[in-house]
Amino acid sequence: MSPRNSLESIISTDKIEQRVAELAREVERDYSGRELVVVSVLGGSVIFLADLVRKINLPMRIDTVSVSSYTGKAVAPRGLKVLKTFSEDVRGKHVLLIDDIIDTGGTLAAVMEEVRAMEPVSLKTCVFLSKKKERNIDVVPDYVGFEVEDLFVVGYGLDYDGMYRNLPYVAVLHVT
Questions:
Q1: CA 42, 47, 53, 55: dihedral to nearest 10 degrees?
Q2: Is the pTM of this model over 0.85?
Q3: Rounded distance, CA 9 to CA 89, Å?
Q4: Tens digit of pLDDT for each residue in 95-110?
Q5: Residue 135, burial from CB neighbour count under 10 angstroms (0-12, 13-18, 19+)
Q6: Catalytic residue numbers?
Q7: What's 68's domain CATH number?
Q8: Domain assignment of residue 142, yes or no
């Protein structure tokens, strides 16, 4: 952390653990008796993905897709860039798309479009954080961990210039 930057914790490790367990139970209920393909948007969702899937007691496959909408020290999204596409064939399968945060909705909408083109039986979305803000793109996640104000947050997989992903809690980063 830069001496000029400061962190303000807004979601504790205990609250995260409790909410992830609740989300896992919701997913189990909704997909009971079905095999699931969980697709995670790298890299911010890795920690959330790992914690969530270990708590879901269903047969599943896990795949990842990598996109980037932030560059360097940016705190506002720029153009979306797909870096890695799917390895798993999701045609005819139930897909749960996992992302770390929904901000403008652009990333989630673009990946959802790519998944739909692969003709899954069903597609649901799960985000760890949802920013409370108006979106130009009409994307409403099926599962949401927490709603947060429209602030720049880090921790639990979320980063600033590649840093802070390892924090076990979520904090507002005050950049000066």
A1: -170
A2: yes
A3: 39
A4: 999 999 999 898 899 8
A5: middle
A6: 103
A7: 3.40.50.2020
A8: yes
